[in-house]
C-alpha cells in the first residue's frame, strides 16, 4: 500500500522538484509513479551514509597510516639503509624503483581484484598481509648473512620484496579512497573525506622519529621487522572489524541478472539521467575495456599527466629536504633527521586542515587554483634564498620552507584525488583512475629517484637552487589541471544535503 506521507524531497507546492537534488528540475515528474518510489533512492542513500560511523573512518585511517609509513620510510633514511645493505646509492635506488614498478603494475591486476577479491575491504585486508610478509623478508639475506654471489643477490631479493610492497601500497591507497568516498552523504564533501584520510601521510611521517631511534639503538633491520608485523596485525584486525561492524552495500539497488545496478524507472524518468550515479558491473566489460575507456578520455589523461609532475616534484622534495639536505649540509644523524620530519608533518597537517574544513565551500577549480598559487609563491621564495645563500640556508629557514612546500603539495594532492572521483569517465572506473594516477605518480618517482641524488652531488653547493627551479617548473606543469574544469564532472552532487 502506498504511503500517504509527502516525500521529504518534494516541496508540497512544487511537483517538478528533482527527487535527487531537492530543487526545481527541467524534467517534470510524471504523475504515475508513487511518492514512495521516488523517495526510495534518497532513503537508500541516507541509509548508506548513516551506516558509516567515526570508527570506520578511524580504521581506514589506520590502514593507510601503516602502509604509507612502510612505503615511504626508505626515502627518509635513504643513506642509512644503503649503508646497511653495503651497496652504493645508485644500487639502493634500483631497490626503491622496484616499489614504484609494483605501483605501476597494480593497474593491470584490476580485473583480479574485481573478480576475486570483489570488495574494497577485502582488497585492503589481503594486501596488508602480503605487504607485511614482504617487509619482514626484505632484510632477510642481510640478517642471516647470506652473501651468495655478492651484492647482486641482495639487490635482486630486496627488489622483489619492494615490488610486492609497492603493489600492495597502490591497491590499498586506491581502495581506501574509493571505499570511503562512496559513503559520504553529499558529493560536495568528497574532497573533505579524502583530506581526512590523507592525515595518514603526515602521521606516518611522525613514525620516522621512532624509526630513527630504532636504527641507532637496535639496527636498521628492526624497522622492517616491526612494521611488517604491524601490517599483518592490522590486516587481520581489519578483517575482524568489518565483520563485526558491517556497512550498508553502497549500490543504489540490487543488481539484476546481468550484473547491472539499476534504480526504479520512475526515478530515471524523473531526474537528469547523468546525475544518477550507478555502479555498472557488467560481466561482459573486462578490465581491458576499462583501460581503453580510461586512456581515450581527455580528462582522465590530463589527470594522469598532471599526477606525474605532481609526484616528481613531491618525491624530489622528500629526498632532498630529508636525507640529502639534512644529512649532507647540516650533518644531522639519523635520530635528528627523524625529528626534522616534524616540519613536513606540520606542513602536511596544515594543508589537510584547510582542505578538510573549507574545500566543500568552494568549487573544485578554486581549490586547485589556490593550492597552485601557494606552491608557486613559496617555491619562488626558496629560489631567491638559494640564489643568495646556496645550500647554506639556516636550518630553521630550511625547515620552515620545507613545511610550506609540503603544505602546498599535500593540498594539491587531495584535489587531484578528488578530481579522479568527480571526473572519472564512468562511475565504475573511479578505482581504475585512482590506480592510473598511482601509475603516473610512481613513474615520476622512478625518474626522481634516479635524478635527485645524482644531481644533488653534481651541483654540490648549488643543489637547492637547481631543485627550487625544478619545483617551480613542476608547479607550472600542474597548472594544466585547470583545463578539466571547463567540462562538467561526471559525478555531480546527487545526494541529499544534510543540514
Question: How many alpha or pi helices?
Answer: 19
Major sheet characteristics: none
Describe the global form. globular
Tell me the fraction of residues in β-strands, as a range.
under 5%
Distance between the termini: 31 Å
In helices, the fraction of residues equals 55-70%
Order of helices and strands: HHHHHHHHHHHHHHHHHHH
Radius of gyration: 24 Å
Structural class: mainly alpha
- The residue ranges in which pLDDT falls below 50 over 5 or more consecutive positions are 1-39, 252-288, 493-499
What is the count of β-strands?
0
What is the residue-mean pLDDT, rounded to a whole number?
A: 80
Kindly summarize this structure in a few lines.
The protein is mainly alpha-helical.
Amino acid at each position: 500500500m502506498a504511503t500517504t506521507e509527502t516525500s521529504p524531497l518534494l516541496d508540497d507546492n512544487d511537483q517538478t522538484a528533482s527527487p535527487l537534488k531537492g530543487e526545481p528540475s527541467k524534467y517534470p515528474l510524471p504523475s504515475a509513479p508513487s511518492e514512495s518510489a521516488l523517495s526510495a533512492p534518497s532513503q537508500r542513500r541516507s541509509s548508506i551514509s548513516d551506516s558509516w560511523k567515526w570508527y570506520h573512518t578511524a580504521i581506514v585511517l589506520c590502514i593507510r597510516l601503516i602502509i604509507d609509513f612502510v612505503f615511504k620510510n626508505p626515502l627518509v633514511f635513504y643513506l642509512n639503509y644503503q649503508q646497511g645493505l653495503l651497496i652504493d646509492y645508485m644500487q639502493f635506488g634500483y631497490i626503491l624503483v622496484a616499489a614504484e614498478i609494483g605501483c605501476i603494475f597494480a593497474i593491470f591486476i584490476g580485473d583480479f581484484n574485481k573478480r576475486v577479491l570483489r570488495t574494497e575491504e577485502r582488497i585492503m585486508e589481503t594486501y596488508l598481509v602480503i605487504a607485511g610478509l614482504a617487509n619482514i623478508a626484505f632484510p632477510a639475506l642481510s640478517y642471516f648473512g647470506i652473501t651468495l654471489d655478492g651484492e647482486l643477490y641482495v639487490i635482486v631479493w630486496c627488489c622483489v620484496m619492494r615490488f610486492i610492497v609497492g603493489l600492495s601500497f597502490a591497491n590499498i591507497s586506491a581502495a581506501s579512497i574509493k571505499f570511503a568516498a562512496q559513503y559520504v552523504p553529499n558529493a560536495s564533501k568528497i574532497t573533505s573525506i579524502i583530506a581526512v584520510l590523507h592525515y595518514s601521510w603526515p602521521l606516518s611521517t611522525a613514525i620516522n622519529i621512532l624509526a630513527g631511534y630504532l636504527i641507532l639503538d637496535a639496527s636498521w633491520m628492526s624497522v622492517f621487522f616491526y612494521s611488517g608485523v604491524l601490517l599483518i596485525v592490522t590486516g587481520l584486525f581489519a578483517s575482524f572489524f568489518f565483520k563485526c561492524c558491517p556497512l550498508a552495500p553502497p549500490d543504489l539497488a540490487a543488481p539484476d541478472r546481468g550484473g547491472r545496478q539499476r534504480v526504479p524507472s520512475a526515478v530515471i524518468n524523473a531526474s537528469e539521467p547523468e546525475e544518477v550515479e550507478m555502479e555498472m558491473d557488467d560481466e561482459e566489460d573486462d578490465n581491458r575495456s576499462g583501460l581503453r575507456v580510461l586512456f581515450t578520455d581527455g580528462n582522465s589523461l590530463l589527470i594522469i599527466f598532471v599526477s606525474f609532475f605532481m609526484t616528481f616534484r613531491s618525491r624530489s622534495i622528500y629526498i632532498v629536504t630529508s636525507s640529502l639536505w639534512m644529512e649532507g649540509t647540516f650533518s644531522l644523524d639519523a635520530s635528528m633527521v627523524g625529528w626534522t620530519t616534524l616540519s613536513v608533518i606540520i606542513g602536511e597537517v596544515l594543508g589537510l586542515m584547510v582542505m578538510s574544513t573549507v574545500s566543500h565551500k568552494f568549487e573544485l577549480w578554486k581549490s586547485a587554483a589556490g593550492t597552485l598559487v601557494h606552491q608557486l609563491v613559496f617555491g619562488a621564495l626558496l629560489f631567491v634564498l638559494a640564489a643568495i645563500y646556496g645550500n647554506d640556508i639556516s636550518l630553521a629557514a630550511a625547515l620552515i620552507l620545507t613545511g610550506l612546500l609540503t603544505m602546498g603539495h599535500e593540498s594539491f594532492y587531495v584535489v587531484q584525488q578528488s578530481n579522479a572521483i568527480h571526473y572519472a569517465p564512468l562511475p565504475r572506473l573511479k578505482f581504475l583512475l585512482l590506480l592510473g594516477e598511482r601509475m603516473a605518480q610512481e613513474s615520476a618517482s622512478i625518474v626522481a629517484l634516479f635524478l635527485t641524488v645524482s644531481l644533488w652531488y653534481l651541483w654540490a653547493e648549488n643543489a637547492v637552487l637547481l631543485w627550487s627551479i625544478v619545483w617551480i617548473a613542476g608547479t607550472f606543469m600542474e597548472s594544466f589541471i585547470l583545463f578539466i574544469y571547463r567540462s562538467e564532472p561526471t559525478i555531480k552532487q546527487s545526494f541529499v544535503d544534510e543540514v
